[in-house]
Amino acid sequence: MLGGASLLNIHDEFPHTVFGNLVTFKKKPTVIVWLRHFGCRFFQEAKLLLPHLHRKLAEQGIDLLCVVQGTKEEAALFWPFEDIPYFPDPDKRTYRTMGFEKTNLLKIFFPNADLKKRRVAVSELGCSMNKSGTKSKSSDILQLPGLVLVDSNQKIVWIHRSTHTGDLDLSEALVDRVANALPK
Question: Contact at 8 Å (CB) between 148 and 62?
C-alpha cells in the first residue's frame, strides 16, 4: 500500500513519535521492518532474506532497521545478526503507533489462498514454526508485520501494512520498489 505519512498523523514527528529518543537516525533513507514473532515461519524466512536485503539496500545508500517483538534478552536468543540493527518492542507499542493491525485465529487456522501459497513457499525454504520462539513471553501470534521507508528528511514516503501473516515481501524486488519510492 502506498500512502503519505499524513495517514498516520505523525509525519512531523517521525521517528520521535514512534521510537522516542531510543533510536537515532542518520540523515539518509531508512527501511524499517516490523517483523513477526520469533517463532513464526515468516520470521524464520526473514532471517534467511535479511542479510542479502541489507547488503543490497546498503549499496543504494539505504539503512535497514528491524523491529522485533521481544526484549533485548529474548532477541539475544533469536536474532543472529550483529550487523543488522534491531529495536526491541516487547509491548508492540511501535506496531500500534504505525497502525499495524492484528489478524485473528480464524485467519491463521483457515488461511486464504495467498497465505496458503506463502506457507508452502517458506516451507520449501526449510522454514517452519519455532516453538520456543512462539512461547517467548513477548510473542504475539496475532500481530501482523509491516514496513516503512523513511527518506533522508525523516519523512515517511512509503508504508506497507500487511493483510496477513505472510504478507511482507523481503525479496530483492523490495530494493527496486524502495529505490523507486524515494524522491529523486
Answer: no
Q: What is the DSSP string of 139-158?
A: --TTB--EEEEE-TTS-EEE
Domains by residue range for the chain, with CATH: 5-18+28-163 (3.40.30)
Using CA atoms in the order 88, 5, 156, 83, what is the torsion angle rounded to 10 degrees?
Answer: 10
d(CA 32, CA 141): 20
- Please write the tens of the pLDDT for every residue from 29-52: 889 999 999 999 999 999 999 999
Amino acid identity, position 157: V
Higher pLDDT, 151 or 101: 101
- Residue with cell string 499524513: 6
Annotate 72-99 with DSSP letters as a single string: HHHHHHH---SSS-EEE-TT-HHHHHTT
Q: Which pTM does this prediction carry?
A: 0.85
41's CB contacts (< 8 A; 6+ apart) are: 119, 122, 123, 127, 128, 129
